[in-house]
Amino acid sequence: MIQEAQLTIDLNSLAHNYTCLRSKLKEDTALIAVVKANAYGADGARIAQELAKLGTKHFAVAYTAEAVVLREANIKEDIMVFYPQLGQLERIIEYQLEPVLYTLEIVKAFLLLLKQKNLKDYPVHIKCNTGLNRIGLSQEDLIFFLKEMDTTSMHIKSIYSHLGASENPKPCPFTQQQINAFEIVKQTVKDYCPILPKFHLLNSSGVFNYPEHQLDAVRVGIALYGFANQAEWDLELRPIAKLSAPICQIHRVKKGENVGYNQGWKATQDSRIGIIPIGHADGIGRQYGHGVGNVQIVGRTAPIVGNVCMDMLMIDLGSIRCDVGTEVILFDKNTTAADFAATGNTISYEILTGLNSRIQRVYQ
Ligand SMILES: *Cc1c(COP(=O)(O)O)cnc(C)c1O
Does 264 lie in the same domain as 326? Predict the structure, then answer.
């Protein structure tokens, strides 16, 4: 019987997704497994260990602290840090991580550090902005970097960019512009670099939508966890996570009584209300409730009612036969995190990465 809120991770599904993605890639296209944000809620260290067993040679995280956790969990493979901050560069070196350099300031600071430490051939990656306008060197900065700066202490392993709408139906003029801009980046690099770095552009949806642009590597996150941002592509994958919790109390409320903070729900008839030990502190936000968002109990559907509390939420049990201890499913393989997210007007990424670490992780 389920004792508390838990996220059950199906490692066979993880293996299925890994194999599925790998099968879409040429043999010499590297798969960079993105395990940032705790491997999209599943637990960074554990998932990285599993992926390493499956053959993953390259990992990526967003911030330095996430990579340190992986090193401390004995992950020996390459770890790329997408968004290192100026104050984190010492730790990058201390833990032998591979920083992505995305501004000239970061490049300068890192070069200085390498010089101070008398290091040579330190592996780095360069991020170029091709239209997402989030992070990355402009074309001008890239030329300045390649032409004017002494980069002999670095080994530029890869130069990449990121698509802003890789899941949109083709043809997509914006994505095409980004692809064209990246072609110019590649040409610029070829003009200045005697030894070519690897080039990459695609995230998960990109692998499904633009396999012809897989280049030397792809950076896949959400697809490893079972989603590719289009129903048709999702069919090839298996959601790895199930979020469930037990009913911890059942109230019988009379018609006219109310439930939860600020009288969030009022019974229009005598009702049974189930209390579930998971709330907005766990990542089930206040956009749910008031009839937005359902849960599954013994194969039936019950609505979330009233305001979601910090540690708990309430559901209207209607005539569902259940008891204290009965498992309530928020999402699983059938009603997926993407479905649950859509009812709350968000995306699978936000629901998965928002799951608090206090939710018990169980692997099977
Ligand atoms: C998060 C991230 C990815 C992975 O994206 P998915 O859509 O989850 O596959 C790839 N590249 C960069 C730069 C990222 O920040």
Answer: yes
Ligand 1 and 203: CB distance under 6 A: yes
Q: Which atom of ligand 1 is least distant from the CA of 40?
A: 8
Question: Angle at the Cα of 45 (from 295 to 358), degrees rounded to 5?
Answer: 40
Alpha-helical runs (H) found in the chain: 11-23, 36-40, 44-54, 64-72, 89-94, 104-116, 139-148, 173-192, 204-209, 231-234, 337-343, 348-353
Domain that holds residue 272: 241-363
Under 8 Å between Cβ of 354 and 280: no
Q: How far is the CA of 220 from the centre of ligand 1 (A)?
A: 6
Put simply, whether the predicted model's pTM sits higher than 0.85 gets the answer yes
Residue nearest to atom 4 of ligand 1 (CA): 221
The answer to whether the CB of 220 is under 6 A from ligand 1 is yes
Q: Are 133 and 84 in a shared domain? A: yes
Q: Are 64 and 202 contained in the same domain? A: yes
SS3 117: coil
Query: 200 CB less than 6 Å from ligand 1?
Result: no
Tens digit of each residue's pLDDT (9 = 90 or more) over 102-132: 999 999 999 999 999 999 999 999 999 999 9
* 238 Cβ closer than 6 Å to some ligand 1 atom: no
Q: Could you tell me which of 16, 40, 27, 70 has the C-alpha nearest to residue 241? A: 40
Handedness of CA 204, 206, 212, 216 (dihedral sign): negative
Total domains, the chain = 2
- Pocket test residue of 203, 209, 230, 234 for ligand 1, highest count of atoms within 8 A of CB: 203
Ligand 1 in reach of 221 Cβ (< 6 A): yes
As given in the structure block, the two tokens for residue 274 are 């189930």
CATH code, domain with 89: 3.20.20.10
d(CA 291, CA 305): 5
pLDDT tens column, 68-107: 999 999 999 999 999 999 999 999 999 999 999 999 999 9
